[in-house]
């Protein structure tokens, strides 16, 4: 077995405890078997309730930096039903901070109904600013402008990029790899292993790629299923996040873009737009494994995994850990389509 290092040697920065860790691993009793896979769920949907999903791990690092900088307000952005924005709103509430969320909508003059994550953002006391799809292209500038505005009012903002996907936030998933390796049964720690996950802004992928290399875990091969942009975009984004992280923490490994495996065959019509196949696999996972997937991220990743499982050489290995990154609240805006 190749030598592995624990991340203690990497001199990682501090984090605040926000996620319930370690999250459990549990076998897929029926969905995996039907696909001819040996399938485990890594239940990162159980990092919490308010702070459920993968964003909780990223926010542990981001909040530590925000607090060290003396911030009193978190500023971030996302799609209208962003899980990241909701998690940030609750992280702020738990730590006695405020949150300003820039949420992307078709028409800012006609804000959407307070359903699902938007309801939760409001309950957590976050200030919501609606931005159009056009304005959202300049989201980094818009967030900087909000930070200046807050500064002029005597407040101190900490800006978190979309999805919490900064080099710092990504470290949450480096630790998740170490956590997974510690909890896997002995037989799963040797031999080829697929790590399947959904890619939305790339931070989770960057952390997983850094993690398997930092641990020297060569048999573990991450495969990211894109939910919006194409594979070339995400290879570049993830490699850039990893390179930035390595500049900041030089003990981190190199992650070449051409080693990244991203599958963009399951995006469907676009971000947060479901396909009938995607909805069907959500129903199957619920009925057959008793697990809730979501239409925006994990449903697309599971559809990708299920499809590639049936193709020869479609996956690095038939032994698979599926990172369940959360998103349950994202089911509710699809109630009519799902109940049919
Ligand atoms: C944000 C999110 C993802 C994507 O993670 P990134 O780090 O943004 O790529 C996957 N699943 C769920 C449920 C999410 O909310």
From TrEMBL:
Keywords: Hydrolase, Pyridoxal phosphate. The active site is at residue 82. It is an enzyme of class 3 (hydrolase). It comes from the Bacteria. Its EC number is 3.5.99.7. The keyword Hydrolase applies. Residues 19-326 form the Tryptophan synthase beta chain-like PALP domain. Its cofactor is pyridoxal 5'-phosphate. GO terms for molecular function: 1-aminocyclopropane-1-carboxylate deaminase activity; D-cysteine desulfhydrase activity. InterPro entries: ACCD_DCysDesulf, TrpB-like_PALP, TrpB-like_PALP_sf. The modification N6-(pyridoxal phosphate)lysine is found at residue 55. Belongs to the ACC deaminase/D-cysteine desulfhydrase family. PANTHER family: 1-AMINOCYCLOPROPANE-1-CARBOXYLATE DEAMINASE-RELATED. This is Pyridoxal phosphate-dependent enzyme, D-cysteine desulfhydrase family. It comes from Anaeromyxobacter dehalogenans (strain ATCC BAA-258 / DSM 21875 / 2CP-1).
């Amino acid at each position: 077995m190749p030598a592995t290092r624990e991340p203690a040697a990497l001199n990682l920065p501090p984090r605040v405890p926000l996620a319930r860790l370690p999250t459990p691993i549990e076998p897929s009793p029926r969905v995996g078997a039907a696909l001819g896979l040996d399938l485990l769920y890594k239940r990162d949907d159980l990092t919490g309730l308010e702070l459920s999903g993968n964003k909780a791990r990223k926010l542990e690092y981001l909040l530590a930096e925000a607090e060290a900088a003396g911030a009193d307000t978190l500023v971030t952005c996302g799609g209208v039903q962003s899980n990241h924005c909701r998690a940030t709103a609750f992280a702020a509430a738990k730590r006695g901070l405020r949150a300003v969320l820039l949420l992307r909508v078709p028409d800012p003059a006609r804000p959407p109904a307070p359903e699902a994550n938007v309801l939760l953002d409001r309950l957590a006391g976050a200030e919501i600013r609606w931005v159009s799809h056009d304005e959202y292209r300049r989201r980094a500038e818009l967030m900087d402008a909000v930070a200046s505005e807050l500064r002029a009012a005597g407040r101190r903002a900490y800006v978190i990029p979309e999805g919490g996907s900064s080099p710092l936030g990504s470290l949450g998933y480096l630790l998740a790899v170490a956590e997974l390796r510690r909890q896997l049964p002995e037989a799963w720690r040797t031999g080829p292993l697929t790590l399947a996950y959904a890619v939305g802004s790339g931070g989770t992928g960057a952390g997983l790629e850094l993690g398997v290399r930092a641990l020297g875990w060569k048999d573990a091969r991450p495969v990211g299923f894109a939910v919006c942009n194409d594979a070339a975009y995400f290879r570049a984004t993830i490699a850039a996040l990893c390179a930035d992280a390595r500049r900041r923490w030089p003990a981190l490994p190199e992650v070449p873009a051409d080693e990244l495996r991203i599958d963009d065959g399951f995006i469907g019509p676009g971000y947060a737009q479901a396909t009938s196949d995607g909805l069907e696999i959500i129903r199957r996972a619920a009925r057959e494994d008793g697990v809730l997937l979501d239409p925006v991220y994990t449903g697309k990743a599971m559809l990708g995994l299920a499809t590639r499982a049936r193709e020869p050489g479609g996956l690095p290995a038939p032994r698979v850990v599926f990172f369940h990154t959360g998103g349950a609240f994202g089911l509710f805006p699809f109630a009519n389509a799902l109940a049919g």
